[in-house]
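Form P-L/3: holo structure prediction, ligand 2-deoxy-2-amino glucitol-6-phosphate.
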Amino acid sequence: MCGIIGATGLDDVVDLLVEGLERLEYRGYDSAGLVLTFPSGLWRVRAADGTRSVSALRELAASAPGGARAGLGHTRWATHGHPSIENAHPLFDCTGRVAVVHNGIIENHAEIGARLQAAGHTPTSATDTEVLAHLIEEHMGTGQSLAESVRAALLVVRGSFSIAVVSADEPELLVAARRNTPLVLGLTDGAALLASDIPALLGRTKRLFVLADDQLAELRPGSVRVTTLAGEEVDPPALSVDWDLAAAQKGGYEDFMSKEIREQPRAVADTLLDRRRPDGSLTLDEARLSDDDLQKITKVYIVACGSSYHAALLAKYAIEHWARVAAEVDIASEFRYRDPVLDPAALAVGVSQSGESLDTLLALREARRRGARVLAVTNVVDSSIAREADAALYTRAGPEICVAATKTLLAQIVALELLALTLAQVRGTRSAEEIGHIIDSLHRLPEMIEDVLSREKEVDQVAEALAGARDFFYLGRNVGYPVALEGALKLKELSYLHAEGYPAGELKHGPIALIEPGTVVVGIATRNPLWEKFQSNIAEVKSRGATVVLVANDGDERAEALADHVLWVPEAEQLLAPVVDIVPLQLFAYRLARLHGLDVDRPRNLAKTVTVE
Ligand code: AGP
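OUTPUT (holo model):
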């Protein structure tokens, strides 16, 4: 996945492109490039410098000639072809008068490329994208306009794309199109803009529009025309954005991760706002699911990836325990290939902070194809997953820029717990008093998270003591198990250290063979009915020489006696505790990564939004 930015009609187009790419770096940063249009031809610079690509591009762009009519920028996360200058976008056709930037994958690029080469085209990159430039060149060669040539080219490609194209023949025109990956359009009085994501445009305009799948946009200074790929005119829906650029910037913190970790109490509190009717009962009005709809549900299928999958696992405990509805959780990329059995009385829930993860989007499409109602739980209003779903429940965490999910995860857990409680209410499996009590407990979570954040220095000390360790096992039982998975994922992503998450009871069935002196075991040991058994699991690893770190509730003497280090947290209700217990693990992974001198916001090989399968 990659970041795309484009503009026409601006005097300072180079500044917009570079600033936009800086805000889109979270989508990938293997290489970066930009192209400017002039009636005489195109001017292009590219850099392939790992996490420095965009800053290297800024330096190169300083020598751009003035008077450009329009331009496109791109920051790349490599799929086809190494991260290199040759493979960096924008990519040209044979004439050098057409340039293309692309996010996604052209699945039939090999067959199209072979035909184009036989017809005399010469590729200069190993990317799947370049065929688009040559296909457009072919059509323009027959006298078609740039827009018609892009439309014709897209009719023969398979796969996913957001693309933007410029040509020296029509230097004020940007042509863009999308299928399955995001693209946002923006307008000002004299300019038109496009980008993969909203923060890249927010500094310039809030007049934003969504381009939907299989639509094509022609952007000229001050105007946008949208048609379907089949050629029908479309009025693109305006996008409502209730946050500003400041919210999408670092706000004085050293990095986005620190800022976003500290925004967690707010994210949880905002996600809980306005969920009760005057009579105290719970409502998910915004989700557009009636009580009647919820009553009829016979089974819940939840699909998600990465951290969102961990939120989904936690939702299973809540839905089954409170609402007594069977819930299945699938890794989204596996779901649609396992021939699942669904029926119209099933509710499929897709959990995705970005609302753009292609694996989740495709899993939900499959669920719908098999008759299920589809609910999106996402942080991004009008994202692809939200728009395709029958209903949407929004987390209200604000924009998350750091590649590693933090505040959006906590907000997801809370939103899914609200869903579980709503199911319990309409199905009568929990009394109004019980539900009211749990909601009150949910409202106490922001304060508990603040409390954990205030103990950051203690977490830092534990991280410093373990800075030399290379192997980490995270263990938990019951809801502590997804917390363990999340703790291990955060450590892997941020510090590149070997980390595994396991249900503690499973360790003795194999993984315990890996425990030796020097291995660090991080146990989620907050109070729950399995504490005694968990204690035995920890004793087993301790006797094999592991260094033990426990996340434990304040005042727990057993934990203190058992552990080498304790990460203390206040005690929350059992099913809500993950929202608190995850926080010290985020701080721990953050500090270890910083101690190893790593860039926490942009870990290697990763991207914030994964819009490829
Ligand atoms: C989390 O820290 C990761 N960056 C990643 O696992 C992420 O949760 C996953 O890619 C899912 O993204 P989504 O929530 O936007 O769908």
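COMMENT: Residues 432-453 form the longest helix (22 residues).
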